[in-house]
Amino acid sequence: MSTYNAFYVRQAADDVTRAAILSVYPDAQIESGADFIGAVLSRDAIEPPEQALAELSAKLGTDSSFS
């Protein structure tokens, strides 16, 4: 069985967003899209990072969601 842990920030990818994500999750693999930036987390990160995502959303002034 495989696990895919990622979260997405509804915001165009830029250096500020990338730096904010990497400050919380330094080992995340960053994915960029036209209207979002995503971070793929370790397979070991099985608990939703609700508090960290809420703080990241507030810091960036946008929504973040975990999948």
**What's the helix-strand series?**
EHEEHE
Q: Output mean pLDDT.
A: 79
Counting structural domains, the number is 1
Q: What is the end-to-end distance?
A: 16 Å
Number of strands: 4
Characterize the overall form. Answer: globular
Sheet having the most strands: 4 strands, antiparallel
Helix content: 25-40%
Name of the CATH class: Alpha Beta
What does this structure look like?
With 67 residues, the protein is an alpha+beta fold. It has one domain: Alpha-Beta Plaits. It is 31% helix and 22% strand. The protein is built from 2 helices and 4 strands; from the N terminus they run E-H-E-E-H-E. It has helices at 15-24, 50-60, and strands spanning 6-9, 29-32, 37-40, 64-66. The protein has a 4-stranded antiparallel beta sheet with strand order 2-3-1-4, with helices on one face. The chain is globular. It starts with 5 loop residues before the first strand and ends with a strand.
Annotate the secondary structure layout:
Elements: E1 6-9, H1 15-24, E2 29-32, E3 37-40, H2 50-60, E4 64-66
Antiparallel strand pairs: 1-3, 1-4, 2-3
Helix pairs in contact: 1-2
List descriptors.
2 helices, alpha+beta, Alpha-Beta Plaits, 67 residues
Concise summary:
31% of the residues lie in helices and 22% in strands. The protein is α+β, with helices and mostly antiparallel strands.
